[in-house]
Amino acid sequence: MDIHEYQAKELLATQGIRMPRGGLAYSPEQAAYRATEIGGEAWVVKAQIHSGARGKAGGIILCRSEKEVEEAAEKLLGCRLVTHQTGPQGKLVNRLYIEETVPIEREIYLGFVLDRKEERIMIVASGSGGMEIEEIAEKEPDSLVRQTVDPGLGMQEFQAREIAFGLGLEGKLIGKAVRTIMGCYRVFRDFDASMLEINPLVVANDEVYALDCKMSFDENATFRRPEIMELRDKSQEDPRETFASDRGLSYVGLDGEIGCIINGAGLAMATLDMIKIAGGEPANFLDIGGGASPERVAKSFRAVLQDKNVKVILVNIFAGINRCDWVAEGVAKALEEVGVDVPLVVRLSGTKVEEGKKILAEKAPTVIVADTLAEAAEYSVAEWKKATKAAA
Fold first, then answer.
1. Catalytic positions, please?
2. Which of 112, 153, 359, 367 has a 20 to 30 A CA-CA distance from 383?
3. Which parts of 288-362 are beta strand (E)?
């Protein structure tokens, strides 16, 4: 789960991390008022969306008068900002963060991420702030400073000092950088974050400021972090994924037109591969999990059909914990209640498979039944091609 820049900064502020003064605005008039409230001679108007590279996309505008602030807000609010991270559809800007400018002397990159291979928190820093970490790693790999944190011990101040030394900081800035790094670590740890990135962390007026911040959280831990769930902005999420997650389904939206309902992440990945091999494009990853009741299967159909591009649905179930007769009942229920108006291919295998096929034959005779995954993929692609040709 991602949050906005201003929300991440509010979390950092709980640890005393310095940042420019700023305020939230939902209208041009409010943006101009925020600039007056903050004071000074220049401000930065920042579009609040769940994406990096906002500056390159025109989502961060420097203003030198309250009128310019109002004009920038007028330009940004209500638009869809397209970055290389959002895809061509972009993300809707419905709030802005108005922030004072600071005289930047130096920019630094600072990032915290979970290294799942090492089972440690990895800290990556670089003296080349303002760039994407991928660019830094490619163009200036020697500038990267790394530290790993043992979860049993937690981060130690000597590690933060080594990072500060590695960045070439001197004098009082070392202590201030150490406090910033340790504060970031505590926020990362205490709120079950999976990523925290300050880019850039700047040196200005003999202080260290967090000029921008991105944070993501482990969704499996949000049940114990209700204060983080309060920060969720569904308008920034794929509506298909939001619909599915609100109903307890594991769903990832893709760009194809063959909808998938599968049990098990491994089988789901294999199914997506088989669709590609057969010449098709999957529309989603959807794992209905174990113990799929007819009601849960019907919910899965509703989730897949949220995507209006779907022209065919493939159901692929290998039943162990699940039962094929439950899934077949769910398919019949979906056809009756949900109104599935696209071709449906079903492959069942495992527990109660014969009973499941019998139910499909009796209650869902229009369903195309496949015996193997390869057959199911081929049937789905064939139906997809028919639907595409008919639409043309």
1. 109, 197
2. 359
3. 312-319, 344-350
